[in-house]
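To whoever picks this up:

The parser on our side crashed when reading a file containing two proteins. I've narrowed it down to the boundary between the first structure block and the second sequence. Both blocks are reproduced below exactly, byte for byte. First block:
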Amino acid sequence: PVHDVRRGTIEAMAVIVPALRWERPLWRDGAMRVAGVDEVGVAPTCGAVVAAAVIMPPNCHRIPGVRDSKTLSAAQRERLAPIIRRRAVAIGVGAASVADIDNLNIYHATHLAMRRAIARIGAHDHVLVDGLRIAGFEREVGPYTAIVDGDALVYSIACASVVAKTVRDRMMGRLAVRYPQYGWERNQGYATKEHRDAIRAHGLTPHHRRSFQALHVLLAGDQLGLFDGVPVMDEEPGEAD
């Protein structure tokens, strides 16, 4: 069962198990250091966007239970992340701060976080990245393949999604200690009712993304269409990008 954050219901959905079909041809061709890359934290209204790059050993076996972090509970992610870290050849984590997001916009800040994560893994032969092709990305990171829904389909990208999600959740948990009114340890910065009510009552913090127009509209009291298409949940959210 997967939590449907838009309707707040539990629905039985087929769980996609990520495969090694993208890594294996690269390994056969001599690209032994294949990095899977994914980002989390695009949709929240506060906090950094975080990316992870993970190189798993060539011809490895999949770790049971690893899949797109959105389909895992927090407990499952916390159990799997250290296993991934132990088995990985290299892991890099990169972030783009709220200042980066406000200066660059979320689209470019996300790619900045990815590039920072890739830079931290050191030498690599090929990158598998979740999403669409990115202008100028190859010039920065070398040969890469963009795969839509890669976090669900590609094993090394799924590993990266788990690592990135656990890192960002911990970051938001630490910020929640300093700003307990907003419930970030529960909502991770998503636009839950609890979070919206706290913004109305206490205003914005230095960690809110002030370039997000929705926050200004919320503070102005005009909520018409404010969160159309944005996940709104009162339970633990998945990572809706």
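<<boundary where parser fails>>
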Amino acid sequence: MAYHVFIAGMELPVTPSKIQTKISNKNKTITLINEGEVNLLKTPGLTEITFDFMVPQVQYPFANPLQPASYYLGQLEKLKVKKQKFQFIVSRVSPAGKSLFRTNMKVSLEEYTITEDAKEGLDLIITVKLKQYRDFGTKSVVVKEATANTAQTV
């Protein structure tokens, strides 16, 4: 199976070996006087996505065409500093070339960690935490006052 992972249009050079998706609820448990505990069901919370990806410093056969590490680090820093929401896309394709399913959601970059480890040689490991972004805003309602001419009797 082939995975292609994109952060704000930037394809990761090496597909993460594991992507964790945490989907939480905001349910609340309360205790009623005579009924005991009950669970008040609420709208789900924001989804969190966590993964590690490698930024190779040499060309490997399994890596996408190589950009320098400064490119990936610069893109992540830009997303963080500019406080931008962006698309996170994971495209999954079977070995036969059939499209399986996609993850495509608006997210924000919550945090990232850069690890340089002698076990990885010159390669960097970047740990990323994303959080789902939901559009929001105020809504305006126009209320028209009824007049005697527009009122209807039943």
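After patching the parser it read the second block fine. The mean pLDDT is 87. The CA atoms of residues 87 and 149 lie 52 Å apart.
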